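We emphasize that the prediction below concerns an isolated chain of 409 residues; any contacts that depend on oligomerization or on bound cofactors are therefore not represented. The input was used exactly as deposited, without trimming of termini.
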Amino acid sequence: MNPLYILFLITLFIVFIWSTYNGLISVTGIFHSKFLHRKISYEVKNYPMISIIIPVKNEEKVIGRCLDAFLKIDYPHDKMEIIIVEDGSIDKTIDICMKYTEKYPNLIKFLQKSISNGKPSALNFGLKYTKGEIIGIFDADSVPESDILKKVAFYFNVLKVDVLQGKTLPINTNENILTKIISYEDFIKYEGRIKGKEILKLFVPLTGSCYFIKKKLILDIGGWNENCLSEDTELAIKLLEKGIKIKYADDIICWQENPSKIKAFYKQRKRWLRGTMEAAIKYGKLIRRLSKESIDAEMTLIGPFISIPYLLSYLLAIYFIIFPSEEIIVILAQLFIIASMVASIIAGIILSIIIKPRKKYDILLIPFIYVYWIIQTIIALHSFIDIILKKPIKWERTEKSGISTIISF
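Result of the prediction step, given as a C-alpha cell string:
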C-alpha cells in the first residue's frame, strides 16, 4: 500500500479520537451551563486579604479602564491591594499608573522592573511585595465584575478551594469579524471544554488571567517559570503533580480584549501553542500516573500537536481527490473534507443561536469559522517548527485597542 495512504489513515484516526474525546467534554459543559445552573449565596463572615498582580507593558490604551474597574469592586479596600508591575513601557503607561498610585496610595502599588523579560518574571517580582493570603492574576486589559472578590472570598473561605480559575469573556466581540469568531471560540473554551472538565472532575487548566491561588501554595511551588511561554499551563501541571485541584467557577467573571488584527492574533496564538507544546514534551511523564486527571492533562497538552495531523489530513485529502488512484481513499478523502465542513457549519449555527444578543448576519460568519480553524493549524505547525529548530523563546505582549463592546453569553 502507498505510504501516503497509511499516513492519511493514521492522521484521520488521531483526529477522530481526539475530537470525539474533547467534543464529549464540551457537550457536557454546555449542557450543564445552559440547563443545570444553581443559585449560590455568597455569604462570608471574614474577608481574606487579596493581592491582585497586574503586569503591564505599553498598555496606555487599557490600563486606566482596568484600574477603574478594580476601584469599583465591592470589597473592603483594607482587605485588598492592587500591585502593578511595570515591565519596560515606552508609552504613557507609567504616567497613567503613577496618577492612580498617587490618588490611591493605600490601595495601589506601582513597581518597576529594571529588566524587561516577560510576564512570568513580572509576576514573580510582584509576588515579593504582596501582603494577601490569596493572590489574583489579571492582565492589563481586564475588566472584572464588581462582585468578583466577594465571590472569590466565598470559594476560598467557605468551599476551601486552593486554586480558582474564573471565566474570561471578550469585551470587544463586535469590533470586527476576527474578534467575533474568537468570541465563539471563547464560548466553547469556557462554557464547553473547561466547564465540562470541572463537571467530570478532570484536569482544569489555568488560562493566564482571572485566576487566584493561595500565596503559600505558589511560594511552595517556587513561583512562575520565567523560561516558559505558557507559565499558566506549567503552573497548572505542577499543581496536578502535587495533587492540588484547580476549581473552575463560571460565576467569577472578567472581561478582556481579544486580538483584533491578524498579526496580533498570530503572534498570540503562536506563543500559546508553542508554550503548550513545550509543556507537553516536558511533562509527558504524567501519562504514567494513569489517573483520569493526568490522562486528561496529557490530552489537553497534546491539543496543539493534534492540529498538525488535522492539517496534514486535510492536505492529503485534497491531494487524493486531485490525484486519485484507489477509489476507497478518494471516498475517505471526500468524506473527511465534507465532514469537517459540516461540523463547522453545525458548530456555527449552534453558536449563532446560543450566544446573545443574536444578529441575523452572524450566520454568515460560518465560512470564516472554517478558515479560522485552518489558520490555527498553520500556526500550530509554525510553532512546532520553531521548537524543532530550537528558536529562542521570546515573550511578546498582545496589542490592545481599548475598544469595548460587551455582550453576554
